[in-house]
Every structure is written in structure tokens, then in C-alpha cells.
Amino acid sequence: MIAPVAVVGVLLGIGVDTQIDKAMDASRTAELVRDSEHVTRLINDVEAEHRQALLLSVEQESARPGAALPSTAAYRRTQQDTDEQVTAVRAAFGAGLSKDEARALAYIRSLAVLRDKVERGSVPAATIDPAYAAAVGYLIDGIGLDRFVGTSSSSVTNLLDTVLRADAAHAAFESGVFSAQTRDANALTEYTRAVGAHKLYEEQSARFGRIASPDQVLRLSGIERDAEANGIAAQYAELQIDPGSLQGQTPHELRKAMAAGTRQAEARLTITRTLIDQIAARSDSLSRSALDNALAMLALALVGFTSWLAFSVLVRRSVVRPLAALTGAAQQVVDVAGEELARVEDDESADGTPLQPRPIPVPVRDEIGHLAEAFNQVQVTAAALLERQVLSRRNVAEMFGNVGRRVSNLTSRQLILIDAVEREETDPDVLERMYRIDHIAVRLQRNADSLMLLAGIRDAELEARPTSLVNVIRAGLGQIEGYQRVSLRSETEVTVAPDITDDLTLMLAELLENAVSFSPSDTPVEVVVRPGTDVTSDGGALIEVIDHGLGMSAERLDEENSRLVRRERLDLVPTKVLGLFVVGNLARRSGIRVTLSRTPGGGVTGTVWLPSALLLAVNPAAAPTPAVDATEATVDADPDAEADVGVSADADADAAAERPALPDQEPTPPGPAA
């Protein structure tokens, strides 16, 4: 029975070893492909130096006798770029630099003699062109891609070889066309080199088309589709008609051609580097695929061995029953713990039944018995831990609720005292200060209400009455700072049911607080009340709170909108915008829909939709005079006249009458209470 398993294991081991070799080979190829990108950059630098050498030679030939020699600064810069890239190639390949590539780099160093001649006087293009062309050929051949012929990575190396040679051929073609425009007497020879280079590029491009993907073929063809390439193609076409037509261009014209050639070289280099990255990615994919195959075969071997082992131990059926009992007990702990975790995440769900673990019987005193005893102890410990967590959360919520209730009670008493002082005060300056203190106290009470809300406490107002939506908004304004910047426009007149008046006031206060706090002080905040039928057929009413601040990113908006509808605990998912957490809690509790969106031009717009079930029909005969006309009259919202709505539904009317009224009402001068 063991022999067949051993044979299968050996065969699978051989297969795994083969796949690992393929993965390592593909990984080395990917590294070589990425290193070859430095060679591509070096080729581009060599061609740039080549063109500068030709340009400098023409300028020296065109210089008048006795005149100062042309500047060699540009030519020396290209030499420096080439030498620096040679160093970069050595660093990239490191110890893996092949001997052929090392000889190619040494050849570039040996160009110092030619460079010196070009700097000292005019050198024919027929001398310059072969020297630099040979350097490019040595660089490509030196990479050593022929080492991978016949391996699993040969398809990748063929792609890389084709890309490099196509890039070098087109670079040689560009230099050949440039050389043919000089005053050199061998323009026909230089034109012939351009023809040969272009033919080589077409051959490599056709070869690439046979082995590459359509997207890669299209990208390679981009070398000849940009504006500079079209200009070079036009010059090449003129040369085909008359090889001597462009001979003898002036240095100024050659400098323009030089600039165009530089731009074309950069565009070509970008395309080549992109293709190299794609080829490297393909090699990485081959490596991962081979590694996945190796892992799959290894997993298959492990599964087979495990199955055989499991079959061998089936005779020990006595182990199954204790393990089944352990599994059932573990599942019970998992289920109860899952319910507890869900309850921890959901702040609005009630605490459930405490965990009462079921002890596992220990029929024997062997290893399984010891495990059962240990698991029983784990169950008891887990149950105690969960129970303590529930108790701790309940105590913390009760503590916050007590603090919030105390602050609310103290603030209510403070407001009563402030109202009493306001009734007896006649000095306008003192009254103004009293109103500010009153406003701060109202804001403090709003914070206390939010604290009780977070603690899960809801104090319903027993004497709450139906209130117009405009007055509810003004009550919310009375609980924030900077209400002077808020303008209110109402296009409809609705009345809010008494059981949600307090929640809606607090919700709007939090939205308005955020709008005022997170927008520049010189920008307005708009509140618009519209019929809900403008957006949904369900009716109701829409309230839009529009600010013009910096706004939020799309990701942040999505996060906050999801928080408005998703139940979660503040201690597990903290937020910097605590008001929106309160808004979401109130919205879910009252059945109100709240969404955030971007304001055109910058800022955030908060939209509150009140379903018709939360609104009361307005009785025209008994309805009070509306605070805002339904014909889109815009008013500045001074909420002091309505600040007590958020504190108590039956706030003292006399004190409210003495405070500054909203701008659409006739102001009542301060005076002694009647």
C-alpha cells in the first residue's frame, strides 16, 4: 500500500521541480527584461550624441575663417548623459553583466578619440555614423538574449529582442535622415544607410506583428505616427525623390531638425519602455503561472497523502465521537460570539441572552479527554469575557446618558433663569449680551441631547405640539453658531408631527452646524424647503442645506452616506464628523432619509427627505401665519426668536416675543415684561 503512494509522490515531485525551474527561469527573464530598459535608454543617449556630433561638425565646417569655434557645450552634455547611462547599465546588471555587454560598454568609452576629433574640427559624417551605429549594435547583441533560445522564456526574449532592434533601427533611420541633410560629400552613402535602417525597422516591425498582441503591435506602430515622425518621413520622401535635395542645410535648419529628432527620440523611447514593461509583466505572469502549477501539484500530493492517511486512521472510530462533541461545542461558542460581535457593531440592537456554554462530557482520560477539559475551560472563560463586555458597554452608556441628562437639566434651568432676567432687563446692550448667553446655552443643550442620543436614551417631549417645518428649521438655527450666514427659502408650507419635532430639530442643527463650520466665513449657507413631489412620487417634504466650502472627496462622501444608513457603533468606527453620526442615528430612528452630495462649484449639500407620514395636513382656517411665504421668499434666519423650540415645545411665549424676531417679521423693541 505504501509503494504506490511513494511512486505517485516521486512523479509529483519531478513535476513540481520542473514547474519551479520554469518559474525561476521566467523570473530571471523578467529581471533581464527590466534591466534591458537601461540599455534602451543608453541607445537613445548614444543616438542623441550621434546627432550632436553631426550638428557640431556642420557648424565647424560652416564657420568663417578666423571666427570663434562653435560651442561644444551641447555635445559635451550628450557625452555626459551617455557616460552616466553607461554607469547606470553597469549598476543595473551588476554581477550579471555579460562579457559581450561589458565589451560594448568599453567600446562606448573608447569613443573618446572620436569625440575629441569632433570637438577640434569638422569630421565627415561618413566617419561619425559607423562609429555610433556599431555601438548600438554591440549594446543589443551584448544583452545575451540568445541564451534563452529553446527555453520556456524564449517567447518573451523574442519579443524583447524584436522591440530593441526595431527601436535601434528606427533610431538609426532618424540619424541617417539627419546625416543626409549635412554638407558632407557622402550624402548619398548616408541616405543609403537611412534606407537600410528603415528596411530593417520594417522587418523587425513585421516580425513583432507575428509574435505580439494586437495592442502591442499598435503601440509599436506609434513610433511612426507622431508629428515629429511625420516630419522625418516627409524629409525621407524628398530624399527618395532626389537624394541631394536636402544636402547642405544651414546650421539653423539643422538645429531645428535636431530639436525635432530629439522629441521623436523621446516619444520613441517612451513607447519602447512601455512595451518593455508589458513584456516584463508577461514574464512575471509566466513565472506566477509556473509557480501556481507547482503549488497545485504540491497541493495535490498533500491532499492525496492526507486522504491516504485519513483512510488509514478511520479504524480509530473512537476518536470521531469526542471530536464531534468538541466541534458542536465550538460551533455554539462561535454562534454566540458572532451574535455578540454583531451586537457590538450594532448600537441599536438590544443585549441578548448571556452565553451559557454546554459542558462537553469527558468519558475517557486520554489526549481527547484532556482537550475536552481544556475546551470546557475556554468556554467558561469566553462566556465570562462576553458577559463582562456587555456589562461594561451598558455601564458606559448609562454613564454618558446620566452626564447628558444632567447637563440638559442644568441647561434648562439656566435658560429659565436667563429668560427671567431678560424679562426684567430694559438696557438694549445688556439684553443683547443676554441673548448671546441664551444662544450659547441652547447650543450646550443640543450637545447634551446628542450625548444622550449616543448613549441610547430618548427623552420624548410630553407636551410637544405640531410645528411648522420653517419654525423647526429656525429652532435648529438657534442651536448653532454663525446662524447669521444662513438664508432660508421655503417653497412649501408643511407641519411636522409632534413626535419627531425634537429629533428633526436636533438633526437639522447638526447639519447646519457642519455647513457653517466647514465653509468659509464669507460664504452663505442656504436652506431650501421644497415639496417632496419634486423628487419622488411619495410626496413629503425636502430640506436642502447647501454650503460652499471645500467639500468632501468622492470616497469620503460615499463613506459618510453609508454611515447615514448603516448601523454601527461610534467606539468601533470613529468619525471626525460626529454630527453626521448623530444625524444618521436620528434618521434611522425616525424613518427620515438623509443624503450628502457635492455642491456645484464646491461644498456639500445635505438633503433631508421627510415622508408624508411624518407630516400633518395644514388647516388653512387654523394655521398660523407662515414664517416664510411659499413663493420662494428668501429670508435671513435669526433663530433667537425660535431658539426655545429645540429646548421645550412649550417655551415661554413672552420671552420669545421679546427677543429679536426673524427679518420677515416686525421687530419688537425690547422693553419691560408685561
Automatic annotation (TrEMBL):
The record ties this protein, via InterPro entries, to:
HAMP_dom, HATPase_C_sf, HATPase_dom, His_kinase_dom, TCS_sensor_his_kinase
Sequence ranges assigned to domain Histidine kinase in this UniProt record: 443-614
Annotated Gene Ontology MF terms? protein histidine kinase activity
List the residue ranges of the region (Disordered).
629-674
Segment forming the signal sequence: none
| Database matches in Pfam families | HAMP, HATPase_c
Top-level division of the source organism's lineage = Bacteria
**Protein keywords:** Kinase, Membrane, Phosphoprotein, Transferase, Transmembrane, Transmembrane helix, Two-component regulatory system
Q: Where in the cell is it found?
A: Membrane
So what does this thing catalyse? Answer: ATP + protein L-histidine = ADP + protein N-phospho-L-histidine
In terms of PANTHER family, this protein maps to: SENSOR HISTIDINE KINASE TRCS, SENSOR HISTIDINE KINASE YKOH
Instruction: Please state what the protein is called.
Output: histidine kinase
Q: Which organism is it from?
A: Streptomyces sioyaensis
What lineage is this protein's organism placed in? Bacteria, Bacillati, Actinomycetota, Actinomycetes, Kitasatosporales
